[in-house]
Design a protein that fits this description.
With about 170 residues, the protein is mainly α. Helices cover about 50% and strands about 10% of the residues. It contains six helices and two strands; from the N terminus they run αααββααα. A two-stranded antiparallel ribbon has the order 1-2. α2 crosses α3. The longest helix has 26 residues. It is globular and about 65 Å long. The two termini are about 20 Å apart.
């Protein structure tokens, strides 16, 4: 299997910090978040990630005569239609699934950090269930699940509750 972002821990950490930051971060900002990684190492990895099309430059910060590039994940590589998914190669699908799991991991990291020092109870859950289903049963299950998620998704405009992330992967 080809897991480009998991091959190098520094690249993985950079990508995690850049998830959901469309405005991007500079090397200095990344360095503040990734204190254990030297600035020179960040420059080297960020430049390689730009060359590999994993990151893109989204702007410039100017401070006096100094210009800093702002880097963001190149999420265009991870947004695909149903038709594109069906025609994608195995490696392209692996990259998309890797991004999906990175997104979930970063969401959990942000949530856990928001619990703070008050030691609030962690209310996150996850489960893995293997079911014996026929193709028809699986199709029916997916339809019912989709209808349930759509019901609650459509309620978001009516309810002023807290944003929650529900993720699911079905491996037929």
């Amino acid at each position: 299997m080809e897991f480009d972002l998991f091959k190098n821990q520094v690249r993985f950490k950079i990508a995690l910090e850049l998830i959901d930051r469309d405005e991007g971060l500079s090397i200095l900002e990344l360095n503040k978040l990734l204190k254990e990684v030297s600035q020179a190492t960040l420059y080297r990895h960020v430049n390689s990630m730009v060359e590999d099309d994993l990151l893109k430059i989204v702007g410039l910060n100017r401070s006096g005569k100094v210009e800093e590039k702002l880097y963001a994940l190149n999420t265009q590589a991870y947004k695909i239609s149903e038709e594109e998914w069906q025609s994608a190669t195995y490696n392209e699908k692996i990259k998309f699934v890797t991004y999906f799991f990175m997104y979930i991991l970063q969401g959990y990291k942000n949530y856990h950090e928001s619990l703070g020092t008050n030691q609030s109870q962690d209310q996150s859950t996850f489960s893995l269930v293997k079911m014996n289903l026929t193709d028809d049963s699986l199709s029916e299950f997916q339809s019912e699940l989709s209808a349930l998620m759509e019901k609650y998704y459509n309620m978001k405009s009516l309810d002023k509750g807290t944003e929650r992330t529900i993720s699911m992967v079905i491996i037929p």
